[in-house]
Design brief:
Blueprint (H helix, E strand, L loop, with lengths): L23 H11 L2 E6 L8 E7 L3 E8 L5 H10 L10 E7 L2 E7 L3 E3 L8 H13 L21 H6 L4 E3 L8 E4 L5 E3 L6 E3 L1 H14 L4 H8 L3 H5 L2 H19 L1 H26 L15
Helix pairs in contact: 5-6, 5-9, 6-9, 8-9
Length: 297
């Protein structure tokens, strides 16, 4: 357990601290919470943890992630711990938290499975959609989180900000490594709740659809996938265009125009594909069918 194996070849990740390098009292605190540790296997996915591992104890198996108390990701871990009790319907359960000797560690139920495959035609796509619907039903009472539209306050007018206001819980970073497919293949779990927000559910749909395009979907295919959600079908064109304007400009500000260009182009293409589908639907024989409620149903 003392030796840290190297990451897989060509795998981009953050440096890791091995179990034996954690302070003695911190390891003892983990064992008080989880039971005597029998084995530790480093998990390399993720950039915001110094320690990330599957920890097998005499009681159970856990996924444990953590950072030193002076690490920039400490506020994100606090948010993740605060959100965890509210997202048990869609995420692994947080079982314990250790804060000792300069370290903050979170212990979650270990999910036996794999990262989701967002490529066109995979069996994971319906499971991802089901997870988003379950997320849309998560109650948010007594959950103090920032509102997603506040991320773009410097870019938008008050009226535009109101177009992006909503009362659903959003993850906002659902790329394939943050979606786990259980071993039985019947359920998707949403992990790494470092950037949650309150907002309209259709923004989560848009963000996931843009990730589908990262994995090979055309804008037309991604828009078709998104249409299974009533919130996406019923949101106004103005709201979508406002979101695309804000998100693309923020991305360019953050990483520069050149690096932002591919994602910005995909998001704009998604909005255009949605508009085209909405136009065809408006003139189809079924155009009088009532739209589903504006939720993830």
């Amino acid at each position: 357990m003392a030796e840290l194996p190297p990451p897989p070849a060509n795998f981009h990740t953050a440096p890791r601290t091995c179990w034996a390098e954690l302070p003695t009292d911190t390891r003892a605190a983990v064992e008080r919470c989880a039971g005597r540790v029998l084995a530790v296997a480093t998990v390399w996915a993720g950039f915001n943890c110094d320690f990330a591992a599957t920890v097998t104890t005499e009681r159970a198996r856990y996924f444990v992630k953590g950072v030193p108390r002076d690490h920039p990701a400490v506020p994100q871990q606090r948010v993740e711990a605060r959100v965890a009790p509210h997202v048990r319907a869609v995420a692994p359960r947080l079982r314990w938290e250790v804060r000792l000797d300069g370290w903050v560690l979170l212990g979650f139920d270990h999910i036996v499975g794999r990262h989701a495959d967002f490529a066109p035609g995979t069996a994971d796509l319906p499971l991802v959609a089901d997870a988003l619907r379950r997320l849309g039903r998560v109650p948010i009472r007594d959950l103090p989180l920032p509102r997603v539209e506040e991320r773009w306050r410097s870019l938008l007018t008050d009226r535009q900000l109101r177009l992006l206001r909503g009362e659903s819980l959003l993850h906002t970073d659902l790329h394939p490594h943050n979606v786990l497919i259980g071993e039985a293949g019947a359920r998707a779990y949403l992990v790494d709740w470092a950037q949650p927000a309150l907002g309209p559910a259709w923004i989560e749909v848009a963000l996931v659809a843009s990730r589908l395009m990262d994995e090979g979907h055309t804008a037309k295919q991604a828009a078709a996938w998104a249409e299974r959600f009533g919130c996406w079908r019923s949101v106004s064109r103005e709201a979508v265009e406002t979101f695309v304007f804000a998100a693309t400009h923020q991305c360019s500000r953050g990483i520069g125009d050149a690096d932002a260009a591919p994602w910005n182009a995909r998001l704009m293409a998604l909005a255009e594909a949605r508009t085209a589908r909405a136009h065809r639907r408006a003139y189809s024989p079924r155009s009088r069918t009532a739209l589903s409620r504006s939720t993830l149903e």
